[in-house]
Each structure stands twice: as structure tokens, then as C-alpha cells.
Amino acid sequence: MTRSAHRTRRMLQVAGVSAAALLTLSACSSSDTGSDKGSSASSSPKLSGEVTVFAAASLEESFTTLGKEFEKDHPGTKVSFNFGGSDTLAASITNGAPADVFAAASTKTMAVVTDKKDAAGTPATFVRNRLEIATLPGNPDRIASLKDLTKSGLKVVLCDKTVPCGAAAQKALDASGLKLTPVSYEQDVKSALTKVQLKEADAAVVYKTDVRAAGDKVEGVDFSESAKAVNDYPIALLKNSPNPDTAKAFIALVRSAEGQKVLSGAGFLKP
């Protein structure tokens, strides 16, 4: 064999070894990538289906926003809401109404559900809320304090005492030693606020978040006694949730930094 032929044969041998090595590395890389994808897919199951959320009326604006965000982030899901007085919602749940999540405006109303063993796990407080006096735009009656609501001839509306906003208002009145007879007791905070918006009442004691949501339709008046009647808002997965995985994901969104940003923007306090 000539020196030239020997060199050619040696180069072909080296090229063959290199090609084999490259094929082996490529196969390993492909196998590893496939393994990673399989692991990732199994750890993050695709969410789907409808989630029914029973939530306090004061959460309507912020939860509606979060529901839309959730549906956008998880195509194939739908978030349906039932907003109302927390006591009414709690009673519906304990009477068997189908729902996945309950977000109440007080720990007392959440206790109605947990006492009946209708919640899965321990409820978590996700925000807090304070009261404010809602008056007509421009505050024509010059209301500056809780005591001013006791003025003769002033038409004031309160939430019913069984509703968290009503219980909080009564707590504030008791703390200041004031007696107030409203022209009506409303079943949820939105109904109380509407009375002022329709000029059927001169003022109402509602949440700061509801005054903010109403924009220029009402004017808010802070009062010092509200600090003694701050409500914690708990949220819980319900035991008989038809769609627990998706429900848990919605609760996670509410408690996440993104969810807290939406809620803080609506005027809620951090837990």
C-alpha cells in the first residue's frame, strides 16, 4: 500500500468515528428533550371546564376582571359568578347549591360553610375591606362623620345586620355609642349603594371599594370608627366542587401578586 493510500484510509476511519459520535449525541439529546417535555406536561395538566364562584357583592368588579384574565390564560375554561350577600350565598351552599369556590366578606359567614363541613381545607384570607359613607355627589348634606348620619330628617340606608357590611356598620355604631334608625335595610352592599345613586337615600354605609367602583355617581366620606370594623375576606374551595383542579387555579390567581394588584386597585386592603 502506498503512503498516499494509507493516509486516505486513515482519514476515512476518523471521519467514520466522528459521524458515529455525532449520531449518538444527537440521539441522547433527542431522548433527553422528549423526557423533559413529558415531565413538564405531566406536572402541568391542562385546565378546562367551568368554575362557579359564589362571591360577596363587593367583589363583583375585581372578580369579574380576574375571571376574564383567567379565561384568557387558560383557553377552554369558563368562570361563572354568583354575586350577592355573603349570608345568602352561604345558605345556598349549605343547602346544596352547586359551586366550586366561595369568597365571603367576613369570617363569620365563611364559618357557616365550614361548620357544615362544606369547605375543602382551611379558608384563606385574601383581602380586607373598610367602610365608608356614600353620599350624593357634592355631599349636599355636609356629612363629615358617622355621627352626622343621626341628624333628624336624613335618609340613611344600611345593609341588613345579617350581611357582613351591615354587621360591620353596627359594630362601628356600637363602638361610638350611636343609635341610628335607617329608612331601610338592604340585603347586600350594592343594593344599599343603589339607593343613594337613585336619590332614594341621602347616604349609605358601604365599603370603600363600592364607593370607588361607583365613580362620580356618589361621594365618599371617611370616618374614624371604620378602623374598628374592618372585615377579613376568606376564600375556600368547596368540598363538592365539580371542577376542583380549575377551581384551585382560580383561587391561586386571586391570591397571586397579579390578583392582589387588581384587588388593591379596587381599594381592598392587603390581608
Automatic annotation (TrEMBL):
A Pfam family the protein falls into: SBP_bac_11
SUPFAM superfamilies the UniProt entry points to: Periplasmic binding protein-like II (SSF53850)
Residues annotated as binding molybdate: S58, S86, V189, Y207
GO function term, MF aspect, one: metal ion binding
Keyword Metal-binding: yes
Gene Ontology terms describing biological process: molybdate ion transport
PROSITE patterns: PROKAR_LIPOPROTEIN (PS51257)
Signal peptide from the UniProt entry: 1-29
Family annotation (InterPro entries): ModA (IPR005950), ModA/WtpA (IPR050682)
Keyword terms of this UniProt record: Metal-binding, Molybdenum, Signal
Taxonomic superkingdom: Bacteria
Similarity comment: Belongs to the bacterial solute-binding protein ModA family.
Name of the molecule in the record: Molybdate transport system substrate-binding protein
Origin species: Streptomyces violarus
